[in-house]
Design brief:
It is built from six helices and five strands, in the order βαβαβαβαβαα. The protein is an alpha/beta fold and 159 residues long. The chain has a single domain, classed as Rossmann fold, CATH 3.40.50.620. The chain has a five-stranded parallel β-sheet, with helices on both faces. The protein binds adenosine-5'-diphosphate. Residues 8-10, 14, 16-17, 20, 36, 87-88, 90, 94, 119, 123, 126, 128 line the site of adenosine-5'-diphosphate.
């Protein structure tokens, strides 16, 4: 039984995240999308809103579930007996950041393996931060996020 986790902020989830979820769900028996709540970070969407958005998006996959994590991700995974941590890579900038993060996680929990999945070329420009900026100017984000996320962004930035 191969269980993997895909942790991230998902603030908000994008077609890029969804593509990684779809591909990971086809490889692993179970995939847990871990919505991280980090007190140092400022989010646009609350953890409840991010969980609700991810929950709606993962409905097509029976083997994908979602959980909230407000502790160290590796501790959270160890408690759930998950040894594989998936991260998505859009390019070399992501890689250098993700590589350092994986080294840190390896130092904290040597039993957890980080697996990098490179983005699909269709999604490599998608970045939650840029999408939020575009949405804040009422730009069209419909090619970047699923409809419920576009609607949630519209409501956030309405007025
Ligand atoms: P974090 O704040 O933990 O980086 P994000 O929600 O921004 O959380 O990203 C979660 C993971 O999804 C990261 O590994 C990130 O590189 C990956 N990711 C985000 N957007 C894309 C994309 N368009 N294609 C592939 N991976 C992506």
């Amino acid at each position: 039984m191969l269980k993997a986790a895909f942790p991230g902020s998902f603030d908000p989830p994008t077609f890029g995240h969804l593509n990684i979820i779809e591909r990971a769900a086809a490889i692993f028996d179970e995939l847990l999308v871990v919505v991280a709540e980090n007190r140092q970070k400022k989010y646009l969407f609350s953890s409840e809103e991010r969980i609700r958005l991810v929950t709606g998006l993962i409905q097509p996959w029976k083997n994908v579930s979602v959980a909230l994590c407000d502790s160290l991700v590796v501790d959270f995974l160890n408690k759930r007996d998950i040894r594989l941590l998936i991260r998505g890579i859009r390019g070399t900038v992501d890689f250098s950041y993700e590589f350092e993060l994986s080294m840190m996680n390896k130092a904290l929990a040597g039993n957890i393996e980080t697996i990098f999945m490179t983005t699909d070329p269709d999604y490599f420009v998608l970045r939650s931060s840029a999408i939020k900026e575009l949405a804040s100017f009422h730009g069209d984000v419909s090619a970047m996020v699923p409809p419920p996320v576009a609607e949630a962004l519209r409501i956030k930035y309405a007025g």
